[in-house]
Specification:
Blueprint lengths: L1 E10 L5 H17 L3 E7 L2 E9 H11 L6 E12 L11 E4 L2 H17 L2 H15 L2
Parallel strand pairs: 2-5
Antiparallel strand pairs: 1-3, 1-4, 2-3
Helix pairs in contact: 3-4
Bound molecules: flavin mononucleotide (FMN).
Length: about 140
């Protein structure tokens, strides 16, 4: 069964920019090797992450690692559910950590596409990501 989870959280202020970058690279590398797709965004001290893949792996990652990770706090699950498809496998290498502004433009275009092509949950996700990206 395929499963997707989306959450927001707050960065612990002690994390340095270099450490943040390292974390993003690690997430992308590990997820791609586990066939987990999605996006991880950071904006003004907040994270938004959506990730999808095998249900067991996704739940283990979220409840076993991400929720216990002390690098962030105030973790709020926006949704978690069974999904029919991995929507982000066609985007970049499958999992992207957004660091540069030009990546945001490309993500917006991809979300536009999802919004028109896919299910209502993906429309909700694309709206959530849009508002997260435009928040300051
Ligand atoms: C905001 C945030 C998002 C994360 N997302 C992922 C992720 O998508 N994949 C992943 O493997 N680790 C992610 N991590 C890191 C995990 O919590 C954990 O440190 C990492 O998986 C290494 O675990 P290990 O040392 O037990 O192998 C994230 C951490 C934070 C703070």
């Amino acid at each position: 069964m395929l499963y997707g989870i989306c959450y927001v959280s707050t960065l612990r202020s002690s994390l340095k920019p270099d450490e943040l970058k390292e974390l993003f690279v690690l997430c992308a590398t590990k997820n791609i090797s586990e066939n987990i797709s999605g996006v991880l965004l950071h904006n003004s001290g907040n994270f938004l992450q959506y990730f999808e893949g095998d249900e067991v792996k996704i739940k283990e990652l979220y409840y076993g690692k991400i929720k216990k990770d002390i690098r962030h706090k105030n973790i709020i699950t926006l949704f978690e559910k069974e999904i029919d498809d991995q929507y982000f496998t066609g985007y970049k290498a499958g999992f992207t950590s957004i660091i540069e502004d030009n990546q945001i433009a490309s993500l917006r275009s991809y979300l536009n596409l999802l919004h028109y092509l896919d299910s209502s949950e993906m429309q909700a996700l694309s709206k959530t990501v849009y508002s997260f990206l435009s928040a300051e």
